[in-house]
Amino acid sequence: MLKMKYELTEEQKELVAIAHQIAEEKIKPLREKYDEEQIFPEEIIKIFGQSDLYRVFIPEEYEGLGMGVFEMALITEEISRVCGGIALAYAGSALGAYPIILFGNEEQKKKYLPKIAAGETIAAFALTEPDAGSDAGAVRTTAVKQGNKYILNGTKQWITNGGYAGIHSVFASTNPSKGIRGMSTFIVEKDFKGFEIGKKENKLGIRASNTSELIFNDCEVPEENLLGKEGIGFRIAMKTFDQSRPGVAAQALGIAQGAFEEALKYAHQRKQFGQIIYSFQAIKFMIANMAMKIEAARGLVYNTAKLIDAGEKETAGYSAMAKTMASDVAMEVTTDAIQVLGGYGYMKEYPVEKMFRDAKITQIYEGTNQIQREVIAAQLSKQVSRLK
């Protein structure tokens, strides 16, 4: 509905159609209940797996479809149009898998990626801690080498898919004296000795997504589960974010699209003063602005994803731009959608209040939008020499 026609391949169109069908037929009837009761969508995850959606971002040699960030974003957007929280069971698994895809050795990829591709298990990305949010260098979880194992101790906070993921990309310091240069990354399985799931968070939005603490109490991790080598964990995190931030942007884009559609539909049904409210300039101009901003954000998100898939090296700035713009648009559009619906928009029987709550997190996680502007500014600064 009112979406610019992009030149998608037949395969990409089919993926969008599958995601659309799942969203409309399987997710929409349950989204209110799942949100209200904070139910993790295990049954929906099975459907994602049966529909081969998890295979999209996994390379072909590891039982994936060998597609890219763009296709992952298309699917995330379409699911998020109906429920941003349930969409995270998909996009969050991609985030957890990217460190293995980008930095795993052959044995690690063969062991873990086919399981994610088949939907047998989902993945999680564990970087954030109580004292380490935007400042990744403040990570206090430690990993000490003992024989052929690493012993992990510490606590991770606000981890998407926490409690349900079977595979975790965990960031810990192997040399605290070196700060971010002493950070390393480990693949941690759910049943490893010393690994526990902490409290489940009670959140404003994305309530169908499980967000939990991860606790490492002398957690034993085999040395072969070290990703890359010691000391490159920060690099792994940043390279992963360059790949995954278009996914957050797509989530925000989908939420905005869903809210826009609800507002447009309502404005053509609701009558006041003897006419539909869409006939009032104040309303239709607001909806016109929604449409313009969504399409502008979509162009940036899609093109950023395509640049990444094309192998462009300098994409950090574009990823930050896409995430920031799309999430800011999502917050603005969902706010305006509530305004269009008036008192009804504030009620839980209409989905826009949920979309408003879901949109907020997209401005916060995977780097707050304030941090994203720092990234963008730093990338722009590199261009100064070219302008002289």
Provide an overview of this structure:
This protein has 388 residues and is α+β, with helices and mostly antiparallel strands. The chain has 3 domains: 10-122, Acyl-CoA dehydrogenase/oxidase, N-terminal domain (Butyryl-Coa Dehydrogenase, subunit A, domain 1, Orthogonal Bundle); 124-231, Butyryl-CoA Dehydrogenase, subunit A, domain 2; 234-383, Butyryl-CoA Dehydrogenase, subunit A, domain 3 (Up-down Bundle). Helix content is 51%, strand content 15%. The chain is built from 12 helices and 10 strands. The chain has helices at 10-27, 31-37, 42-50, 69-80, 84-103, 106-117, 233-269, 281-309, 316-341, 352-361, 369-381, 384-387, and strands at residues 123-126, 142-146, 149-160, 167-173, 183-189, 195-200, 211-222, 226-227, 271-272, 275-276. Strands 1-4-5-8 form a 4-stranded mixed beta sheet. A 4-stranded antiparallel beta sheet has the order 2-3-7-6, with helices on one face. A two-stranded antiparallel ribbon has the order 9-10. Helix 4 packs antiparallel against helix 8, helix 5 (84-103) runs antiparallel to helix 7 (233-269) and helix 8 runs antiparallel to helix 9. The chain starts with 9 loop residues before the first helix and ends with a helix. The mean pLDDT is 96.
Give the percentage of residues in beta strands.
15-25%
N/C terminus separation: 46 Å
CATH class of the largest domain: Mainly Alpha
Annotated CATH homologous superfamily of the largest domain: Butyryl-CoA Dehydrogenase, subunit A, domain 3
User: How many H/I helical runs?
Assistant: 12
- Indicate the low-confidence ranges by residue numbers: none
State the major sheet. Answer: 4 strands, mixed
- Quickly give the structural class: alpha+beta
What is the second-level CATH architecture of the largest domain?
Answer: Up-down Bundle
Which whole number gives the mean pLDDT?
Answer: 96
Query: CATH topology of the largest domain, anyone?
Result: Butyryl-CoA Dehydrogenase, subunit A, domain 3
Calculate Rg over CA atoms. Answer: 21 Å
Shape: globular
Strand order, largest beta sheet? 1-4-5-8
Annotation, overall tally of beta strands: 10
How many discrete domains? Answer: 3
Which H/E pattern describes the elements?
HHHHHHEEEEEEEEHEEHHHHH
Helix content: 40-55%
